[in-house]
Amino acid sequence: MNNKPLVYFLCTGNSCRSQIADGFLKAMGSGKYEVKSAGLEAHGLNPRAVQTMKEAGIDISNHTSDVIDPEILKQADYIITLCGHANDNCPVVSNDKAQRWHWGFDDPAKATGTEEEINTTFAEIRDSIKNRIELFVKEGM
């Protein structure tokens, strides 16, 4: 039996922000957490999210884009939404033990401009998510 706290990151499409958070917590959590991510829909893994995480030294290329699983919701210790849409539309959770938090980040997939500007937006959001994950791990949540 796994006694690690289960952290479930949720986003709209499980393509960018939740994947980035998933990758960082797996890398920085020292194996102390069971980490999963999902979306209200499955939009596929965004190649720019894969690239920006590779630049940070983390490989998420084997991640899959998944739809929220009600069974995982029931088991989660932490349910963390990363976008307002997921926060507003997350299924009702009948799980008294879960702590539900909202960490709102802009959607890097909606970035516009030159290739360099879009990549910069991805990197900025990646770094913001990394900082929040560092705080989560430091506080021993």
The CATH C-level name is Alpha Beta
CATH homologous group name:
Response regulator
- Strand-pairing-aware structural class: alpha/beta
Mean pLDDT: 90
> Stretches where pLDDT falls below 50 for ≥5 residues?
none
Q: Strand-residue fraction?
A: 5-15%
Percent helix, as a range, is: 40-55%
Largest sheet: 4 strands, parallel
Named CATH topology = Rossmann fold
Euclidean distance between termini CA atoms: 20 Å
Q: Can you walk me through this structure?
A:
- With about 140 residues, this protein is of the alpha/beta class.
- Helices cover about 40% and strands about 15% of the residues.
- It has helices at about 15-30, 45-55, 70-75, 85-90, 115-140, and strands at about 5-10, 35-40, 80, 100.
Architecture blueprint of SSEs:
Blueprint: E1 6-11, H1 17-28, E2 34-39, H2 47-55, H3 70-75, E3 78-81, H4 84-89, E4 99-102, H5 115-138
Parallel strand pairs: 1-2, 1-3, 3-4
Helix pairs in contact: 1-5, 2-5
Please sum up the structure shown.
The chain has one domain (6-138): Rossmann fold, CATH 3.40.50. Helix content is 40%, strand content 14%. It has helices at residues 17-28, 47-55, 70-75, 84-89, 115-138; strands at 6-11, 34-39, 78-81, 99-102.
Task: List descriptors.
single chain; 141 residues; alpha/beta; Rossmann fold; four-stranded parallel beta sheet; 4 strands; 14% strand; globular
